[in-house]
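Two quick folds needed for the group meeting slides. Do the first one here.
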Amino acid sequence: MTNEINAQWRLAATPKGGLPVAEDFRWTTEELPEPGQKQMLTETLYLSLDPYQWGRRRSGVELPGEVCHGRTVSRVVKSRIPDFSEGDIVFNTNGWQQYGLSGEGVGIFGYMHPRKLDPALAPVSTAIGVLGMLGLTAYSGLIVQCQPKPGETVVVSAASGGVGQVAVQLARLAGCRVVGIAGAQHKVDYLESLGVDCVVSHLDPQLPEKLSAACPDGCDVYFENVGGPVFDAVLPLLNKNARITLCGVISQYGNTDGQDPRAVWQSTGQAVFQRQQVTVHDLFVGNFVDQYQDIFLQEMAGYIRSGQVKYKEDLRLGLECAPQAFYDMLTGDNFGKTLLAVGDYSVR
C-alpha cells in the first residue's frame, strides 16, 4: 500500500470569476496517508458534485491548497475504528481525491457523519443522492418546513435536478398538485414520466404566462432552487400564507456584482412576502440531520423499494474530469444528480 499514489484536486486559488475555470483547480499526487488511532483510510468510489461547493470556494470557506470538498461513497482500505472493517462501504467526505482519512480529527462540517452502507438495500451511489443529504434536503425543505397539504399546489424549480426530482415526488405522495420547472425538453419529458401534473420550461420566452396557466389556483408551496427570472415568474402566483423553502439560487451563483445572492432574492420578494403573508424558510440540511435523518432514510428506502420514488443520476467517469463535470452541473448541462465514478464503479 505504501507504494500507491493518491490523486487529488486541490483548490488552486480563491476563484475570481463567476463560474469555474481550469486555473481554479490544481491536480496533485501524494503517497497514501496512514490512518491514526480511531481513523480509517478509504478509497473513493463515488464523488458528489453539488452547487453549494462553489459557494464554499468563492466565499473563502474552502482555502487555497485544500483538497476540494465533496461528499463521497468509499470502501474501507484500512481501519483503526472498531465499528468499521476493511471492505465496508461507507458514506463519508473524502472530497475530490482517490483516497482519504475519516474519523477522529478529520472534519465532517458538523453533520456529515461517516456511516456504513448496505449494498443489498439500495445501490450505494444513492447515499450521495436520493438516500443521502440530497434526498434529506428535499424532505426537510418540503415536508418538514413547508408541510404541504393534500390538494395544495406545489411548484418546484430545477425540478429535474438532484434535489428537485425528489421534491416533486414527495409532493405527489403528499397528495398535492405538482408543477415542475425545468429546462431542455428531455428534462421536461422526464418529469412528465414521473407523474408531475404540469411541467414548464424556463427556456420558454412565455414562462410567466405558461406558469400562470399551470397554476390556476395559485401557488401554496414553492421549493426554490434557482432564483432569477424563474423566481420573478413565481412571485405573482403566491397565495396568502404560502410557504417557501429557500434551498438555493443557482442562477445567481455566477454573479460577479459582489452582492449576496440570497439577500438579493429576499429583497426582490419582500413586498409580495409581506402582502401575502408568505413564510420563507432558509434551508440548511445540517439542521435536520440529528432529528430527521433516520426517519427519512427509513421512509425513502421504502419508497424506492416500492417504486413510488424514482431517481436519475448523471454519472461521469474518472476523477480527472471533476472540474468539467462541476462546471456542467453549475450551468445546467447535466441531467439528474451529478456524480463521478472515481474508483471501482462496478460497485453499485
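Then this one, please, same format:
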Amino acid sequence: MDSEDKGNIGIDELSSAIRRIGYKCRRQLESDYGIDAHIEIREAEQYPTGKLIGVQVKTDGSDCSEAKEHYNFTSDYKHLNYWLNHSLPVIIVHYDIQKDILNWVQIREDKIIRNEKSWSIKIPKRNIINDSCKNELAKIAENIDIQTRKYNILQESLVLMENIQRGNKVCIEFQDWINKSLSIRALNINIYSDDELIESVEWPFDVFPNDIETGLEKMFPWAIFENDFSEDDEDDDLKYEYMNEWGLRDEEYIDWNDYIEWKEHRLASIGNIRPYKNEANEVDLYRIRVYLNELGKSFLRLNEYLDSMNEFIR
C-alpha cells in the first residue's frame, strides 16, 4: 500500500469517526499544503457555522514514532510555521490501521519541542477521536469571533473559487428523491478540466431546505448558479414529461400550442434551478455549474493580498 492510499484510508476513517460524534468532516479538494480536511462543529443550525478546525492526517507511522503512551510526530519548521499561523486552529491526527484508532493533538506553541533543524510534538494515545473529545474539539473551534467564522465559510471554498478563476469547470451534482422525506442526501462537488473530471468530493450537510436555490446560496454565498444542460436537453425531458402526463405515445400527438403553454407554467413552477433529468418520477437529477459572483471575486482579491503580506509577518 503506497503513501497516498494510506493517507486516503486515514482521512476516510476520520470522516466516519467525526460523523459518529455529530460533526462534519470535509476532505480538502486538491492537496492543500498541510491541511487534509476540515472538521466543522455542528449545533442546532441547519447551515454552515464557520466553526472549523484544520486537520492533518498521518497514517501508520508516517513521520511518527511510537512510544508507550504517545506517538512522536516530527516535521520541518516550514510546516510548523504554516500551522501556527493558520487562520484556523489545527490538529494532527494519527491513524493506526492495525488498532483502528485515531489519536489527535492540537498544534500549539506550548506543546512544541524544538530542535535545531526540526521540531516534534507528542500525540497522546489517550486522545481518541470519539465522543470523549466532542466538547474539547468544540472549545478549540470556539476561539474565533463571529467575523472570522464568516471568513472561514468562504475560506473553506477557496479551492473551488481558485479553480473557477483558472478556467476549470466546477459543478454541483446531486439527486433529489422527490417522494422521500429526506429528499437530498448528498452534494458532490466535481471539478473538470477540458471536460475531464480531475477532482471530486462529497459536501456533507445537515438538513437541506425545500427551496434548492436558497440552500445553495446559504452554502455557497460566493457563487452564481447555472443549470449545466442545453435548452435542447431540457426540452427533450419536458416533452417526455408532457407526453407521460397526457398519456401520449409519440410526439406526433402533441398539441404544440398546448405544450408551449404547459411548458411555461412548468418552468415557472420549477424555478431557476431545474433538474436535467427525472428517473421514474422518483428522482430529479441536477447538475449545476458554479461561477463567481462579486463576493467571490472580491474574496479572491483579498486572499491574494493577504498572501502577499506573509513576508512582513513574523
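Slide caption for protein two: Residues 209 and 215 are 6 Å apart (CA to CA).
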